[in-house]
């Protein structure tokens, strides 16, 4: 080992391992009510608009968030301070086209005034360019239901499969918004992907085939942000590069049916992993090695089912993920210059919901991952388990909603707690409060984010035309 490498390795390897874990394993998951159900509601009206072929709905939201801990010197914001003064506008247009086709387009505009404040915070240009002003096209698709059982949908869309809240076993298609961790609802995290969906229903079964093109990867925070997943690598002097997948098309299939007291789904797919993994290390003997990240190609097969019995709802998933890139342990980081090893993993989920209390829903979920052909070069244990619990309570004729979530992460990596309180002042106005707390020890994948606890208030105005 050269002197430069000897100097670099002790300083970097611990940070590299934590960064690898953060990049590959972070999956923000926090269950709430189905966000998209609010979009699909048909509101009856007696005026002339009832017969029109279009509808426009949306909302304006103002969020103000305070960082209640000091994130540390790795990030742009290093002290207790405001970390968000975000105004956003969401709008969705639904209309009918000729030949029985329906068309939907939706988008969201953001402006965050926190990046214009003179509070002594030296934000990176990447943060300012990414978050000060941005625009997202969400849905953009056409769809048609045929009389012979076929259904067709083409364009930018959400395809939420599976039943689990905290583990992606059969929910394989959509990418995720990982700008923050556990501060958004699960349904808000999923991002639309360009896809073609063809479904056919016959008898009790529905068969879905999906092809995506350039679905991209999970969104991650920019340089300097308090959720920058590459921050430890950059601190260690690593040059980060990201490559495009060799194959840009992904293929998915699902067969689903309704049982007497539940549902059953069979899922298969060949796809690019939405989480980045290391593909190559070059200039490894220099003080500034180059790490090339990309999306490794995977295959998956799985089954998901639920069963209702009185006040109880049981749900579970079982899946086999093939060729998953796995994180090396600390001593093996520079032994895998050609990229991380690929292993097959068996993933399982078991959960239960109980709604026997008035206005209260309790949910518990246990997730596990078992790695086949486990070896001493891997960081994670052969068997990993994680746990999530959720309380959902309403009062005052459902005007007041309280949600509390607790996640125990795999490998005892840490805990995340979240409490949100929302009050519907009227049909148009909603106010809310959000608190998120992160806990971890020095060896956790969340160690760099341990002081990102926040307290946030928001005001939302809904409209419909």
UniProtKB/TrEMBL annotation:
Keywords, in A-Z order: Signal
Range of residues in the leader sequence: 1-31
Superkingdom classification of source: Bacteria
Keyword Signal part of the UniProt annotation: yes
Classification via Pfam families: DUF1302
Cross-referenced PROSITE patterns: PROKAR_LIPOPROTEIN
Name listed for the protein in its UniProt record: DUF1302 domain-containing protein
Organism encoding this protein: SAR86 cluster bacterium
